[in-house]
Amino acid sequence: MTRRRMVLSGFGLAAVVAVALTGCATPAGSGGGGGTTEPAPAPDASAPAAVEVDAAWLDDGRSIGIVTQGSSTCVPMAEDATYADGVLTVTLVEPEDAACTRDLVPRVSLVGVPEGVDPAEDLDIVVDGEGFRGETELDGVSGLAGPGGETQYAPSAGWTNTDGQFVVLTWGSSSCAPVFQEVVATGPAEVTATVEEPPADQVCTMDMAPRAAVLVVDGLEEDDAVELILTGSPEFADVRTPILGSN
Questions:
Q1: Residue 12: pLDDT above 90?
Q2: Please, which residues bridge with residue 158 across strands?
Q3: Are strands 156-159 and 239-244 parallel, antiparallel or unpaired?
Q4: Within a 10 A sphere around the Cβ of 31, how many other Cβ atoms?
């Protein structure tokens, strides 16, 4: 089982303070016993930057939601996903020619689970892209259908490795994704997520697309067997689905 990270109430940048040590170096051969100081090796500019990654099982184990931090309007797409030697490697690609907001939020990239992956077993995940790399472990969940087969186009949800954080997947118009107003624990093992009513003049495309969002809840008393209730919008009339995995 992986160690969970605590959810922070905000996002910030860690300040790195460099401390320069000053002093008088003793020249070699001056009788002080000192010597010349070897210069520190230069950092490898070609090494990929480390990024924080989370993941959650979705759609009965047919999909995985990869959570990264970045612009809410420029969610990366999973270009490739391969499975070998117990490791799922996912390549993410940033959208091209997109105007990205400068916020920093958790966002979800959906990945179809390749053949050979057993959702009942813990899964090592490596995520890479242009100039970055991250790793995480997704805890196994027994009883999932796993890769292959057709989706039922039903809402689903799964816990990530961050306390209180989960991913919810719904299906519908790609231009009218649900907007969540409130997420609260309404019982010891029950979470209610209220979806905002869409504007009356909103025009939605007639496609059927996956829509994923990252939600956070506090106050649950149970670690597993938690049920998610979606309500508030005509599209979700008290829809109920288990949150896969353990909180």
A1: no
A2: 167, 244
A3: parallel
A4: 7
CA 227, 233, 236, 238 torsion-angle sign: positive
How far apart (Å, rounded) are the C-alpha atoms in residues 232 and 194?
A: 5
> DSSP secondary-structure letter at 56?
E
Residue that has been written with the tokens 């230069």 in this structure: 42
Q: Give the pair of three-digit tokens for residue 236.
A: 């979700």
d(CA 50, CA 23): 34
Q: pLDDT for 146-201, tens place per residue?
A: 998 899 999 999 999 999 999 999 999 999 999 999 999 999 999 999 999 888 88
Query: Of how many residues is the chain composed?
Result: 247
More confident residue, 107 or 9: 107
| 60: phi then psi, degrees, rounded to nearest 5 | 60, 30
Please name the residue that has the structure tokens 């996002």.
11
Compute the distance between CA of residue 91 and CA of residue 128 in angstroms, rounded to an integer. Answer: 5
Q: Is 79 left (phi over 0), alpha (psi -120 to 50) or beta?
A: alpha
Q: Looking at this protein, which amino acid is placed at residue 86? A: G
pLDDT band at 9 (very low <50, low <70, confident <90, very high): very low
**Adjacent-strand bridge partners of 227:** 190, 242
CA distance 152 to 230: 17
Residue 159 to residue 64: CA distance in whole angstroms: 11
For 44, the token pair is 């490898």
